[in-house]
Write a structure and sequence with these properties.
- The complex is a heterodimer of chains A (about 500) and B (about 325).
- In chain A, the strands form 4 sheets. In chain A, strands 6-7-8-3-9-10 form a 6-stranded mixed β-sheet, sandwiched between helices. Chain A has a 6-stranded mixed β-sheet with strand order 16-17-18-13-19-20, with helices on both faces.
- Chain A has about 500 residues and is an alpha/beta fold.
- Chain A folds into 4 domains: about 150 residues, Rossmann fold; about 80 residues, no CATH class; about 160 residues, 3-Layer(aba) Sandwich (Rossmann fold); about 80 residues, no CATH class.
- Chain B has one domain: ABC transporter involved in vitamin B12 uptake, BtuC (Orthogonal Bundle).
- In chain B, a hairpin with a 2-residue loop joins strand 2 and strand 3.
- Chain B has about 325 residues and is mainly α.
- Classes of the chains: A alpha/beta (about 500), B mainly alpha (about 325).
- At the A-B interface, strand 1, strand 2 and helix 10 of A face helix 9 and helix 10 of B.
Chain lengths: ~500, ~325
């Protein structure tokens, strides 16, 4: 694949990898190699094959065809134990830390040196843990439970755990997905240091900025095959996007500086909302039919604010007024009764019923409207028709499976549309979308924003929370939260990524 | 199914193991049903006259009717994502109390039945309250409730069976309508109603949602607490109905009457979860599970096997059926994220 010959010998070469799940071909003849000392970016839409490839390398999947050469020798990675012996470490998005253990204890879980029955120290910070912590610049305490650490610190602990035994290859799945820009830089800095020490680093990411900035080599996956492979000098964002989606996407600039909601009445007003450490003094106005963006770094209190408005948590202080009347929801039920809807950030954990059908996922909010005549029973026919109509309205791609297929069979973008459709069906006055494009492939993102705009044009007031500031350019107005406090309100020409960043870091 | 664009597949692509895949997916969906069919065929061959007679088949259904009612109620508790260990003692309580109110206190039959069913619903309510509002683990909560109920059973009955007068009450379980034993008819009605409740009502959809993802349910506006409590009430009510039928059938209320149902009901529900669906609990599956357990016990009894063999087989077949279907499903990668 690569034409460069002046590099060190590849650590891993994968040739003609094939993998089929039932009718789906996850890998169709993938050739790829990983070279010590390089950060290798793996990008592609969800289901494009990058995760399957990494799972194969981790011994979690067995390929149907193809060969793996490790240091030039053919190898079979039967199970994760073999991968560990080879010095391959994998950090998945969910991190797999034992939350009640301290940082040091978590790090030492990765230490397999000596017999299983060897007595090990379980308190304090053993020298091995201290050594790896220093190697990646951990300055926080390793003696408190990881549940008290920030996400970024938990990533560093995970990396340290991978390094505590000899690590030749480190694969990181979306390490920066829930990190703010500054913290993401720190994690990527660690990745760069490791590469400089001769580790082959694999970086799976949806964030193209960091891929283009950090990677020495980028491989783009589409439909189970490599659609583009680039060395350091050839990396370009435009080429990557094109290779991911298969056609040109113009990055969203600001189209409409004078928003359609300009001068519309205020629907929801929040003043000085406080809750816990993360939400201290947040205020905003939301106008009818407006698309309001909330920008901020992770930990700035955005989700906390949304949950207070949605009644999932209670405000400790501050007031809210909805359509001119006092509004203090005591439960999610109250908020929904007041016509407020919320699409949460963690789709799998907080929104989807993975074992259930697309229709059941859509109708969870509206079953009471789908009765057969005057009976207490729900109508199969009405349920199917309503699900099909909503799928059509939001452009949910069901392929051949229809609305009765399990939601897990859909791509991330389509799953997100189902969750949005769930609320659209109750026609809310206020719709809050928390990270609506998280784990949604690039091709589907602009589509989701087009749908959100349509919803706003129909009179629903929409709040969008996003870590991807470029996406907030779609909004009529943006407020910036920093340390749980509203620090800026950007309108008109002021809605720019630079302004948002400036206020976030101010 | 997605259409695979064949022109993009390189000529060197290995042929996907189609038939292997098809076999596994068949086992995952129909393996448990196949076990039932094989068992019926096996017993028929081993004992064609005794097993396959119409009389015996009706007998099998009649034997299984009470288990089916109990297991269907238990299915609700498992669908909502919890556990109930108290139903066996509730079965006993219901028999003791129902017969006791009739015989000792001289209550009319309908009043005794109504009072008994109200009490068992309160037990379900209590279980649900402990689990969903006090956040006690369901296993601990229902084990404690179960122990309390057992104590009450001994207290009320003094440990001795309370004999029911043969008559209208015992006819409920011993009589026939159009030649079909009444317990079968009651079972069909209850299972039908529970199926409708679980699959065709707002409450049922919410019950399934809470079981699938309680957090998402709450954020979608589902009243998680109420739905959970209701599932426990349904479970208890079914146990109570079965308890009354059992007392009517054996002619007395007894402290140990419900004990045998604890394991067989769980076996039936878990066997049922591997029928047609991916490890989800559902009413129809539970009914198939009940048939497996009952057919096996009946067949072994006809073949003259001692009763300990039934226990060994019941455990073994549960392991075999569930392990087979989960393993094939895992190999298929249906649970892939």
């Amino acid at each position: 694949m690569t034409t460069m010959t002046n590099h060190p010998a590849p650590l891993v070469q994968m040739r003609g990898m094939h993998k089929t799940y039932g009718a789906i071909q996850a890998l169709r003849g993938v050739d790829i190699e990983f070279i010590p000392g390089e950060i290798h970016g793996l990008v592609g839409a969800n289901g494009a094959g990058k995760s399957t490839l990494v799972r194969t390398l981790a011994g979690l999947e067995q390929p149907d065809g193809g060969t793996i050469l490790i240091g030039g020798e053919p190898a079979t990675i039967h199970d994760p134990g073999v991968a560990a012996e080879l010095g391959f470490a994998f950090i998945h998005q969910e991190l797999n830390l034992v939350s009640s253990f301290t940082g040091a204890q978590n790090i030492m879980l990765g230490n397999r040196a000596g017999a299983p029955t060897r007595l090990r120290r379980f308190t304090g910070v053993p020298p091995e843990a201290r050594a790896v912590a220093d190697r990646i610049g951990i300055t926080f305490s390793l003696e408190q439970p990881v549940s008290t650490l920030t996400v970024h610190q938990q990533w560093l602990v995970s990396i340290a755990r991978a390094l505590v035994h000899d690590c030749r290859l480190l694969a990181m799945d979306e390490p920066t997905a829930s990190l703010g820009a500054e913290e993401a830089d720190k994690v990527l800095g660690v990745a760069r240091d490791l590469a400089a020490q001769g580790v082959a680093v694999l970086l799976i990411s949806h964030r193209l900025d960091e891929v283009t900035a950090a990677c020495d080599r980028v491989t783009v996956f589409r439909d189970g095959a490599v659609s583009l492979a680039m060395g350091r000098d050839e990396i370009s964002r435009h080429a990557i996007v094109e290779a991911i989606v298969g056609h040109n996407v113009v990055p969203g600039g600001r189209k409409n500086p004078v928003p359609p909601s300009h001068g519309a009445p205020v629907v929801l007003m929040a003043r000085n909302i406080k809750r816990g450490r993360n939400l201290r003094n947040a205020s905003f106005d939301l106008h009818q039919g407006e698309l309001l963006g909330i920008a901020g770094l992770v930990g700035a209190g955005r989700t906390e604010l949304a949950r207070v408005v949605f009644g999932a948590d209670r405000a400790e202080d501050g007031i809210m007024r909805l359509r001119g009347a006092d509004y203090a929801p005591r439960s999610v039920h109250d908020a929904i009764a007041s016509s407020i809807a919320y699409v949460p950030e963690e789709r799998r954990a907080e929104a989807l019923f993975l074992t259930m059908s697309v229709a059941s996922n859509l109708h969870i909010t509206t079953w009471h409207k789908l009765r057969a005549g005057k009976t207490p029973l729900t109508s199969v026919r009405k349920s199917r028709t309503a699900a099909q109509e909503m799928s059509k309205r939001l452009g949910i791609v069901l392929r051949g499976g229809g609305t009765e297929q399990p939601i897990g069979a859909l791509s991330g973008g389509n799953q997100q549309k189902v969750v949005i459709g769930r609320w659209l069906a109750v026609n809310p006055d206020v719709l809050i979308l928390d990270e609506p494009t998280r784990a949604v492939d690039i091709g589907a993102r602009s589509d989701i924003y087009a749908r959100i705009r349509e919803i706003a044009l129909q009179g629903t007031s929409v709040i969008v929370i996003s870590s991807e500031f470029e996406e907030l350019l779609e909004c009529d107005r943006v407020i910036v939260l920093s340390s749980g406090t509203t620090v800026a309100e950007l309108t008109g020409d002021k809605v720019t990524v630079n302004e948002m960043l400036r206020h976030c870091y101010a | 199914m997605t259409v695979i664009r064949s022109h993009t597949v390189p000529a060197t692509a290995p042929p996907p193991a189609r038939s292997y895949h098809r076999t596994l997916s068949w086992i995952a969906r129909f393996g448990t049903l196949a076990v039932l069919v094989l068992m019926v065929v096996g017993f028929s061959l081993a004992s064609p006259d005794a097993f396959m007679s119409q009389r015996n088949l009706i007998n099998v259904l009649n034997q299984g009717a009470l288990l089916a009612i109990i297991a269907a109620g238990l299915t609700f508790v498992l669908v909502v994502g919890h556990f109930d260990l108290s139903f066996a003692n509730v079965v006993s309580l219901s028999g003791i109390l129902g017969v006791g109110l009739m015989q000792r206190s001289g209550w009319p039959i309908p009043a005794a039945i109504a009072a008994t069913l109200i009490l068992v619903c309160l037990i379900g309510l209590f279980n649900g309250f402990l689990v969903s509002y006090l956040r006690v683990s369901a296993i601990v909560a229902t084990l404690a409730t179960s122990t309390i109920v057992l104590g009450v059973n001994f207290w009320y009955s003094d440990g001795a069976p309370i004999t029911a007068q043969a008559g209208v009450f015992t006819e409920i379980a011993r009589g026939r309508i159009l030649g079909i034993p009444t317990p079968i008819i009651i079972m069909v009605v209850i299972l039908g109603l529970l199926w409708l409740l679980l699959n065709r009502t707002l409450t049922g959809h919410h019950t399934q949602a809470v079981g699938a993802n309680p957090t998402a349910s709450r954020l979608a506006g589902v009243r998680v607490g109420r739905v959970t409590v209701l599932a426990f009430v349904v479970g208890s009510l079914c146990a109570g109905i079965a308890g009354l039928l059992l007392a009517a059938r054996i002619g007395s209320g007894q402290v140990t009457a419900g004990d045998g149902f604890l394991l067989s009901a769980f076996a039936a529900v878990f066997l049922g979860a591997s029928v047609l669906r991916d490890g989800e609990f559902h009413i129809l599956g539970t009914f198939v599970g009940v048939l497996i357990v009952t057919v096996m016990n009946n067949g072994l009894a006809i073949l003259g096997a001692p009763s300990f063999v039934q226990y060994i087989f019941q455990g073994a077949i549960l392991i075999a059926a569930v392990a087979l279907s989960t393993t094939s499903r895992r190999i298929l990668g249906m649970q892939r994220t």
